[in-house]
Structure formats: C-alpha cells, structure tokens
Specification:
Strands 1-2-3-4-5-6-7-10 form an eight-stranded antiparallel β-barrel. It is about 15% helix and about 55% strand. It has about 220 residues and is α+β, with helices and mostly antiparallel strands. The N terminus is likely disordered. β8 and β9 form a beta hairpin.
Length: about 220
C-alpha cells in the first residue's frame, strides 16, 4: 500500500513536466481550503471511553503554488471529543473526560490539473505534523503537550465553475477568485506520544473530510 501511494505521488509530481505549461493571467498562484469531517483515532479502546469510534474536526489550509501543479503550504484543524474514563495517555479511570487536539501540518501537494476548465482533479500530498493536544479528566487534572509526526493525504476536487458559471464569473471579477472546487479527502496522521505505562500511542488516525477550495 505504501509503495502504491509513493508511486502515485511520484507520477503526479512528474506529470507537470510532461504537460504544457499554463500561461496567462488565469493561472492562480494561491489556494485556500475550508474543510470539515470526522477523524477515526488510532488509539486503542477509543470508543470504550468516548462512546464512538470517531469525532468531528474542522479547519483549513493555505498554500502557494510553486507551479500550476505543485504547491507548498500549512494546514491546521481542530478536533474535540467528550467521554467518560481515562486519558488517552494515562490508565486513570474516573470522571468526565474532554479531549482536544490541533494538528499543524506543513505540506507539499501535487494536483493533477492540466487545463483551467478541467472538471475533475486528483491530488496527493503529505509532510510534517506537529500535534498539540489537551486532555481534561474531571477531578484528576489536565494533561497537555505536543509531539512530532507526519501525515499523508489525497482526494478528488470537482470544479464548481462549470455548474454555476455566472456566480463563478462574479467571484473572479469582484474577489479575484479564479476557480472554486468542492473536494473530498482522506488523510492519515501518525504522531506518537509516550504513555505513563512505558508504551506509546498514536494521537492521529484516519480522517474523512470534505470542503471548498478557492484558487486565486
């Protein structure tokens, strides 16, 4: 599976060199993503203490397009879960528990777009993650910190300009937004933290997200 992901990413990175370069004022230089969805944590027994195998997360990303197909940027999301039991990193039974996490991702991403009116665009990316977390257990105090990790993501974006051409022209004229896309995305995050029992736990997991992408 890892070899397949690496091969797909390499293909997307090479495709821009094989395609004609995009010229003219229509070429966007920045992208802004607004997204939301759910995260399925890798931490064992998550549903036992939180009553569900997932929790919601939302956030956004901004990136600069080095070329029409390759961009570098930063992304952050916020997730929160409430349950009853022990902290993720501590074997402490007890009262109401609130878990919060904010991963900050620095990434390189390749988009397979070769025409400004291309309606379906695949993309792959990944990079460094700094995971900030906080856990509160009622009557037992608070634990917080941050750990390093990595992430990989991929998805499909659908051009909305062709669905609503008149609003698209207005956005371009009034706000300089060249294209608007709806996208769906899967992301895997791995950020290992030490536990009090001497082991480690992944504070990340698999996210299923959707949102809007604006290019300008």
């Amino acid at each position: 599976m890892k070899k397949l992901i690496l091969a797909s990413l390499l293909l997307l990175l090479l495709l821009p060199a094989l395609a004609p370069a995009q010229q003219g004022p229509e070429r966007p230089h920045w992208s802004l993503e607004l997204k939301g969805g759910v995260l399925f944590p890798d931490a064992g027994d998550w549903s036992r203490f939180y009553g569900s195998s997932y929790f919601g997360e939302y956030g956004g990303a901004v990136a600069y397009k080095v070329t029409r197909n390759i961009e570098m940027g930063v992304e952050s999301t916020y997730g929160r879960a409430k349950g009853r039991g022990q902290m993720v990193q501590h074997a402490l039974p007890g009262g109401n528990l609130t878990w919060q996490q904010v991963p900050v991702n620095v990434f390189v991403l390749a988009r397979g777009v070769f025409d400004e009116q291309q309606w379906l665009v695949p993309y792959l990316g990944g990079g460094y993650t700094r995971m900030f977390y906080r856990a509160n257990v009622e009557g037992q105090g608070r634990t917080e910190g941050s750990v390093n990790g990595f992430h990989a993501r991929g998805g499909l974006q659908f051009l909305m300009d062709r669905v609503e051409p008149e609003p698209a022209r207005n956005l371009c004229r009034d706000f300089g937004i060249a294209h608007t896309y709806f996208f769906t995305e899967a992301r895997y995050t791995r950020a290992m933290a030490d536990t009090t029992s001497g082991g480690s736990v992944n504070l990340g997991g698999t996210s299923c997200l959707g949102g809007l992408l604006f290019e300008f």
